[in-house]
Amino acid sequence: MAALWMAGWLSLTLIMAVAGREAARELNVFEIMEIRSLAGFVLLAPIIYRAGGFRVLRTSRLQHHIARNFVHYVAQLGWFFALTLIPIGQVVAIEFTMPIWTAILAASFLSERMTPWKIAAIVLGLVGVIVIVRPATGEINQGQLIALGAAIGFGVSMALVKSLTRSESALSILFWMLVVQSVAGFVPTLFVWTWPSAYAWAWVGVIAVCGTFSHYCLASAMRYADATIVVPMDFLRVPLTATAGWLLYSERLDAWTVLGAALILCGNLLNLKPPPVPARAQ
Prior knowledge:
Layout: H1 2-23, H2 29-51, H3 62-83, H4 88-95, H5 98-109, H6 116-133, H7 142-164, H8 170-192, H9 198-224, H10 227-234, H11 237-249, H12 255-271
Helix pairs in contact: 1-9, 1-11, 2-8, 2-9, 3-7, 3-8, 4-7, 4-11, 5-6, 5-7, 6-12
């Protein structure tokens, strides 16, 4: 069952990457994000009703929600924008440094222990990024830097989510994400608004559905298996996205990007290694 739910997660996230690139051909990323957030309310409404209505969404940590979702909003903008500048497989490969930034921030601000395995994972991830970006060759482009900034932003967002989950439900976190992102993007969207064509509406609708229910699939997979089983399945997104880019857009990943992605994924695998169980006193 965990594998089936993860198949749903992988399919939806892959479709969303393609939909993001197609929608960005016509619409500004601010507009894409705003429509997605507003559509998210419609998709979330039945779940809120079944959970007991808006009373279950009350929070005493509104400032934390605002901080987390503003960072997440900026990171998502960067992710969608990077899709228009570099191959989608490269965007996803760089995105996979997110767990590494989360580990650093969790150790710094949430008092989580930094093990030798986590340190090795961080080093491998950083080396992987350097291999992909290759700063010494002068080939760094804007898309790579934006994708890296988005990954760091997602890492900050995940660290803040870990803090929020100590007192907030998953439904509350998702609802306040939509609220904050709708408010944050409202004014910028007014300045760049163009009425979408039927083609663009279709792709933005796909983004809204996939962006909402992909997280439901991931949460469902976690119910059937441990994170150490579920998370490595997500690594399939790198080759799957690269394949989609090759088939749909004739994008080819060079050997450096493949090597860098492999280092990043190896780092993530090390980061999943469970801590040693302390020996019981005899």
